[in-house]
């Protein structure tokens, strides 16, 4: 009886561990196809950093889709990527100028778009 109880506990722990592992894997974003990516940090861009979060990965998927990967989400940076990934608006920072902010103007994405285009030309 003691052996059966120990075996059941061991099996329960194994099942619980497997479920946690599988659940954890489900949260990571999927980038399928050819992917070139680099880590992007707020510290590297200074005032030009256009996001409300401090870091992520800038990626080019299949040579045309520019995306920013952060906190388990993949955000579209261009129209081609917008067909498949989340809108960048969720993390796109507003312009610090009060008048521009009031008009809904956000910080430019130009530095990221340029870097993304460079990633797309790499093989």
Automatic annotation (TrEMBL):
> Which InterPro entries would you find in this protein's record?
YebY (IPR019648)
**Entry protein name:** Glr3532 protein
One Pfam family, short name please?
Answer: DUF2511
